[in-house]
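Trying the structure run again after the queue cleared.
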Amino acid sequence: MKVIESLKIKEKAYIEKLENGLTVIIIPKHNANKKYVIWGTHFGSIDNRFIMPKTEEEVFIPDGVAHFLEHKMFEQPDGTNSLDTLMALGIDANAYTTNDHTAYLFECTNHFYEGLDELMNYVQHPYFTDENVEKEKGIIGQEIGMYDDDPGWQLYMNAMDCMYKENPIKIDIAGTVESISKITPDVLYKCYNTFYNPSNMIMVICGDFEPEQLLEEVKKRLVKKETQGEIKRIYPPKEDKINKPYKEAEMEVSTPIFAIGYKDTEALKENRQQIVRKHIAIEILLNMITGKSSELYKELYENGDLLSQPDFDYEFSDEYAHILISGQSKNPQKIQDKIKETVEKYKNEGLDTEHFERIKKKIYGDYVVEYNNVADIARMFLADKMKQINSFDYIEEYNSVTKEYTEEILKNVFKSDNMIMSVIKCKTQK
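Done. Tokens:
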């Protein structure tokens, strides 16, 4: 097994790419009480058009298939549900779908190998029929209705509509009632056979294990499948500009909520090391601009313009990259104006050295803390590996992120031309 290591935090990860193409990552955490496994496939909501390996058939699938598959994987031919089976063992199990991957996971203190048996059984043996697919359409249709009524989710989707014109990240992960009505067992099996091939999957396990022994246990439970060639995904041309600067909607909220974003067009041209450094720099900048210790946050909070500290994030893949800052305010436009004003001030005057160093240390501490929790470690390694990133790189690249470099990122990414705002207003507000 290949071993990668972070000497700074004294952590190791053991990586093996098996003959069938499956990548297995084991992070030993000796003396940890819990064990965590997550098995992901590089298949998310944006992968709605692709060319199948071997047959070279171009396939265009309805929106929401990746999420639909996730729902259906647990059902067994005998009528049982693998989630119920795992819960009966005292195992906490779940699954989720993102823009770029789908994952199945569980956490436990006992019965790990029984849980592994169940996980690897249901992920490798799908069961789709006309009857159970039709039944699921009703369940997911209700879920879509809940998302439609969720102000936070609509805020995010509207922000994506502002950012992108054609990019499939604009598509709701669950699809629409109309799109899921077109899903059939044949569609599900076609996507399963393409994307759930071991060569397109990653398994990450974290806990008190001996890596070599655990790897053999994983191998025993694998169904033999032929490796396949690369899945050629088809995406619209990359977009250099935002779609629109502003979008609002009215929903049942007590206070207006906002999402202010910057589209990062340069990220799509950068290698993974550059992305990691940029990600660290952006985290520092977001904390300096709107974090709890920032002058702007203190001013806006004390004046009653912000009701709580804003959330912020940097999302990126090969097909999209953007920053989002979201929160509650009676006057979202003022928040956007103040952020723009603060960004321009930092561009002109430079970043305060003391504040920069303080925030930089805080972020490093946040990275280190993540390695105390087996679930955080495993999910982080999976998400990063899906993007071809070694999670340890965030620790290793930390020192290379200087104030001067961060100021350069500020100028290149935080541009007014690439700034958007999504707002959900109160229904009674005019």
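The chain has a mean pLDDT of 95. Worth checking whether this holds up in the mutant runs.
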